Amino acid sequence: MKKNGLIMVLFLTSILMFSQKIERIEPPFWWAEMHNPKLQLMIYGKDIASFQPSISNKSIEITGIIKTENPNYLFIDLNFEKSTAGTFDILLKKGKKELKYTYELKQREPNSAKRKGFDSSDVVYLLMPDRFANGNPANDSHPKLTEKLNRAYLGGRHGGDIQGIINNLDYINSLGATAVWSTPLLEDNDDKYSYHTYAQSDVYKIDPRYGTNDDYKRLADEMHQRGMKLIMDYVTNHWGLKHWMMNDLPTYTWIHQFPGYANSNYRMTTQYDPNASKIDAKYCMDGWFVSTMPDLNQSNPLMLNYLTQNAIWWIEFAGLNGLRVDTYSYNDKEAIAKWTKSIMEEYPNFNIVGEVWMYDQAQISYWQKDSKIGAIQSYNSNLPSVMDFTLHNAIMTVFNEENPNWNDGMIKVYENFVNDFLYPDINNIMVFAENHDTPRIHHLYNGDVKKYQLAMTLLTTIRGIPQIYYGSEIGMTGDKNLGDGDIRRDFPGGWEGDAINAFTQEGRTAKQNELFNFTGKLFNWRKEKSVIHYGKTTHYIPENNVYVYFRYNESEKVMIVLNNSQKEQTISLDRFKESIQPHTKGFELFSEQQIDLSKGTLVIPAKSPMIIELK
Ligand code: CA
């Protein structure tokens, strides 16, 4: 027994010695001629820090070697200023032992640096890939990933994937949406609820249950062929507990650690509240979002570099047109400003929208690039786009407020735009009625088509970038009080054998077609309307729950009338003279009727929108 044991130990030791290898290099490849010629490679392998790195190509300079207290990581700083596309060898030497990794510097796609981000000329379609369409039933479960298909459970994996999105791009395109924001697709190996995919376990890999990295690139290519844009949902604030690095952290300060466990208090106001206590601010930013999501420490420069390079890697690899950044205001605010700046310097025409979920416009505008509110505290996030959560908050209730008090009904919407002076870039604000974290509007409006039409007309004609949540265009509903699964149900027709296929006109019910046709008409009309994309706004104090506003530029003018009351209204046009003149006629989009504006009054049916292009 003793002898066998000794042999076993020798055997295992020799395996360890000879199995010494580079387990990972991240980023796994890079590109020549990037704006920023520097790259920090992370090399992972048993005792890798005891090796001395060198590069086979003399034009590539190692400018720094960084080691942490964990000998299994080695960070090397490279400068590619004098390099062209091609491969080179990274050599790691320790005595007689030598490890080699052939690294590739790829050629960039033409115009990669000039890529155009999504903007106010777009309509964004937000979808959850697990719940949209199952284009490949063979990938529904994966042997190496814990959570398996369970479509019967609202919190389980339902099998939707990238192929399902590709299969239905023509549907999204026909609706008139021009960009897709898919919730995250990177690997998430959580035991449960992995379908939301915000607890990622490998950020260089598409979750195999959605497809492959190449499938993701194919999705972007298919979209670009249709003139559409792809937005990646990026998570800088946290990873999943099952992330491979969590078993062997590069350094203690890679994540925020506490004695025991600390949850975030979610009070983002502590980021700028001059009266906040230090402990409250610390627990907001450093506490974990939930116990399965370790909070990343972006103030550690190695960690921040890792996140910056990872985001740029995906933009360059897949050909992305934008990022939506999850929980933006939970990050270390100085570090996330650097992260954002690095990406925008690499791609000056790109766009990044941050989730800044607060119901106060001064606080939302604080997070937009060059904010004067942020400047009060010498802060500039560099974030081009924010989300209009105050408008969302108003939309959730106003169309149910038919006999409003002084402060209810359309006045809430009007007052939202009163504060537009707070935003440095008023066109670069995402406007939405709902998203994957909120109640669905068809639930809030009890399926009332008229209320939906008013909400969508508002979103489509006001300043900003409209975002629609998948399925609203065909009446999908969901109650947040029943859990997140209820607001994230499967799109009908996305699965073989579905009773209804709402992806096709023939498959849709009469009501689904009514909703789809209305939405499609609105979105397709908006596509070519630069007056809506970039025009100015004049609005009028709502009277009798009727909100009237004009969008205009030097060559075009559009009058929008939203009658939120339950009565037909006759409005006097005299009050709008300053906006209407010198026009006397208009064309109304929905009725396709000429409107005579010289008559002095306009009749608008109960609970209805009008879009009048002035002639
Ligand atoms: Ca599938």
Notes on the protein architecture:
The structure is a single chain. By secondary structure, this protein is α/β, with parallel strands linked by helices. It is 26% helix and 21% strand. The strands form six sheets. It has an eight-stranded parallel sheet with strand order 15-14-13-10-9-18-17-16. A six-stranded antiparallel sheet has the order 19-20-21-26-23-24. β20 and β21 form a beta hairpin. The termini are far apart. Residues 14-18 have low confidence and may be disordered.
Describe the structure concisely.
The chain is of the alpha/beta class and 615 residues long.
Keywords:
17 helices; alpha/beta; binds calcium ion; 6-stranded antiparallel beta sheet; Immunoglobulin-like; 8-stranded parallel beta sheet; 615 residues; globular
SSE layout and pairing:
Elements lengths: L1 H17 L5 E3 L3 E2 L6 E7 L7 E4 L5 E6 L6 E7 L6 E9 L2 E10 L17 E4 L1 H4 L29 H6 L1 H7 L3 E4 L3 E2 L14 E5 L6 H13 L3 E6 L43 H9 L14 H19 L2 E4 L7 H14 L5 E3 L6 H5 L6 H5 L9 E2 L1 H10 L11 H9 L10 E4 L8 H4 L4 H13 L3 E5 L40 H18 L2 H5 L1 E8 L2 E7 L4 E7 L5 E4 L4 H4 L4 E4 L4 E4 L4 E4 L3 E7 L1
Parallel strand pairs: 2-8, 9-10, 9-18, 10-13, 13-14, 14-15, 16-17, 17-18
Antiparallel strand pairs: 1-3, 3-6, 4-7, 5-6, 7-8, 11-12, 19-20, 20-21, 21-26, 22-25, 23-24, 23-26
Helix pairs in contact: 7-8, 11-12, 14-15
Bound molecules: calcium ion.
The site of calcium ion has 7 residues, from loops.
